Automatic annotation (TrEMBL):
Gene3D superfamilies assigned to the protein according to its UniProt record, in alphabetical order: P-loop containing nucleotide triphosphate hydrolases
Domain ABC transporter: 10-245
Lyase among keywords: no
InterPro entries membership: AAA+_ATPase (IPR003593), ABC_transporter-like_ATP-bd (IPR003439), P-loop_NTPase (IPR027417)
UniProt keywords, alphabetically: ATP-binding, Cell membrane, Membrane, Nucleotide-binding
A GO term, aspect molecular function: ATP binding
SUPFAM superfamilies linked: P-loop containing nucleoside triphosphate hydrolases
UniProt name for this protein: ABC transporter ATP-binding protein
Amino acid sequence: MSVNTSDYVIETEDLCLRYKGKLALNHLSLRLPSGGIHAFVGANGAGKSSLFRVLLGFEPAGGGSARVLGNDCATLTPEMRGRIGFVNEEHTLPGWMRVQDLMRMQQRHYEGAGRGAANLRWNGERYDEVLSHFNVLPAQRVGELSRGERAGLNLALALAQSPELLILDEPTLGLDVVAKRAFLEALLQSSIDDASTIVYCSHQMDEIERVADNLVILERGSLRYMSGPDDFCGRVQLWVAEFPFKTPEVRKLAGVLQVQQLDGLTHIVTFDQQDGAAFEARLKLLGARRVQAMPLGLDRAVNAFLSHGHAGARRAA
Ligand SMILES: Nc1ncnc2c1ncn2[C@@H]1O[C@H](COP(=O)(O)OP(=O)(O)OP(=O)(O)O)[C@@H](O)[C@H]1O
């Protein structure tokens, strides 16, 4: 049996993936420590799902390396795969099967595999607990379930595998607020109780703000930023300035991510503007009558960060 020698649950080095001339992963180097909930964000097409496909061994890397739980993703054995749970937005489960039969089939698979592999263990209590948040009857066919119920079943099946690593690709897409809350609670509980590492991608910052320990921002297939969400928000700041005459060109000032005109005021979002007093003085020198600094929530902070990248890409094109 292979031994996990890495301290990182996921480790990529110069990872590339190309689809018909399109670079989905661009020399991506990333190290995720084990434990906690890691949220991946990025614009559409940033490479989040592509990365997950390589990590799960569904797609071979076009260059560089990718390791998961200390093992090369290109050569994952069934036992290694059994240590990784995966939930995607489509919740692809066999529609013709009854919920109870699907559960028993998965349980048998895990208990059977567990005879040869001490790491695999079916957690029936967790399955019941997660599914209790959703109105699913054991005798129902999977195809009859609502989208949210299917998401709950998929999560219950994934968490009952007690995976060391759980990868979720936009799992809450289309869920109502109640189902979403139940889903996130189950995730948090599993991260605490099972010490699972959860890797999660979403465009919904309110969820990430609630559950994530680590924020990973991808941009055009590369790692753009990684830290705790609070640290990230602490580095992004909003400045509201009133320019009584013509608004000067502030976009080019160092650290400026985004400039917007709202209700006659200039909203400037900056990143890593260490010397706030100097920045304020600069704005005043440029003609600002009043300047006010304020913190930003994760949603607006990430939005400004990503739109800065978009603008840079457009300029480069
Ligand atoms: N099968 C494919 N064939 C060709 N191009 C692909 C394929 N799958 C993905 N791509 C391209 O690779 C890039 C990365 O796609 P990916 O699905 O990984 O992005 P994403 O970050 O998950 O996006 P989203 O947030 O929109 O789901 C995109 O430019 C996409 O068009």
